[in-house]
């Protein structure tokens, strides 16, 4: 073999060996198992929804109260929901995660989702002048006998929750096609197949800073600030989906 041929042979052999080594580094010997399909969805980040009104201009509800409620209670639930989603993603990817552990995480997921959704609905139906238009008054009168009868029951449910925790919800039943008021003890439980139309937070954090234990005064302030246009929009969407109420 001539010197020229020997140099060409060594050059070619060296390139082949180097290529094999690089290929071995680039491709693992054993393919990594695929993550479950829902992993990315479970870990998706939820972003806080900004207030749709100026918190300095509500009647009877202070800016300090609203900002604390939004930042600490609602904001805390958003952060916790994101953390729970990540834990669910990690737990689902681990084949040895016990079912009871995953079940506890799903319960927390349900509770935090409820808190985020109900708080967003609550804040979105604040910032108005508290005056329902004729169409809404007529709709509620058809379901409750009169608008005043609806308001009386809604307030009575709120009074029953004063000093404790829970929500009062005016809801449109997609199954029953009825409009009714509901008592909710917490974020975990809500009427089945029901679209919330008007949501009132009765946890003490929603009023204690302004009114202490005087929950009835908070209820009055809530009614003074209802954004009925938001309620009407929710009603229209529910009706379009399920048809007019019975």
Structure description:
The chain has 246 residues and is mainly alpha-helical. It is 57% helix and 9% strand. The chain contains nine helices and three strands. It has helices at 3-26, 39-43, 63-93, 99-124, 134-144, 147-161, 208-211, 215-224, 228-242, and strands at residues 167-173, 179-184, 194-201. A three-stranded antiparallel beta sheet has the order 2-1-3. β1 (167-173) and β2 form a beta hairpin. α3 (63-93) runs antiparallel to α4 (99-124). It is globular, with a radius of gyration of 29 Å. Residues 1-33 have low confidence and may be disordered.
Average of the residue pLDDT scores: 86
Oligomer: single chain
Largest sheet: 3 strands, antiparallel
Overall radius of gyration = 29 Å
Q: In total, how many beta strands? A: 3
Stretches with pLDDT under 50, minimum 5 residues: 1-33
Shape type: globular
Number of helices: 9
In which range does the helix fraction lie? 55-70%
Which secondary-structure class do the elements indicate? mainly alpha
Helix and strand run: HHHHHHEEEHHH
Percentage of residues in strands: 5-15%
Report the span from N to C terminus: 99 Å
**Order of strands, widest sheet:** 2-1-3
């Amino acid at each position: 073999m001539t010197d020229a041929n020997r140099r060409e042979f060594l050059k070619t052999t060296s390139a082949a060996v180097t290529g094999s080594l690089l290929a071995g580094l680039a491709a693992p010997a054993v393919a990594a198992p695929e993550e479950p399909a829902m992993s990315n969805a479970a870990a998706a980040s939820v972003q806080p929804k900004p207030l749709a009104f100026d918190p300095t201009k509500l009647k009877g509800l202070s800016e300090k109260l609203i900002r604390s409620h939004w930042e600490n209670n609602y904001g805390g639930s958003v952060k916790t929901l994101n953390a729970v989603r990540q834990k669910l993603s990690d737990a689902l990817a681990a084949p040895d995660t016990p079912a009871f552990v995953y079940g506890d995480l799903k319960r927390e997921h349900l509770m935090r989702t409820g808190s985020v959704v109900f708080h967003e609905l609550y804040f979105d139906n604040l910032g108005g002048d508290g005056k329902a238009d004729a169409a809404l008054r007529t709709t509620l009168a058809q379901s409750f006998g009169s608008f005043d009868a609806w308001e009386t029951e809604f307030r009575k449910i709120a009074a029953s929750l004063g000093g404790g925790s829970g929500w009062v919800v005016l809801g449109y039943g997609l199954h029953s096609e009825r409009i009714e008021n509901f008592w909710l003890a917490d974020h975990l439980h809500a009427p089945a197949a029901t679209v919330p139309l008007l949501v009132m937070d009765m946890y003490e954090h929603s009023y204690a800073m302004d009114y202490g234990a005087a929950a009835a005064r908070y209820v009055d302030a809530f009614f003074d600030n209802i954004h009925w246009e938001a309620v009407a929009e929710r009603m229209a969407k529910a009706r379009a989906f399920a048809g007019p109420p019975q």
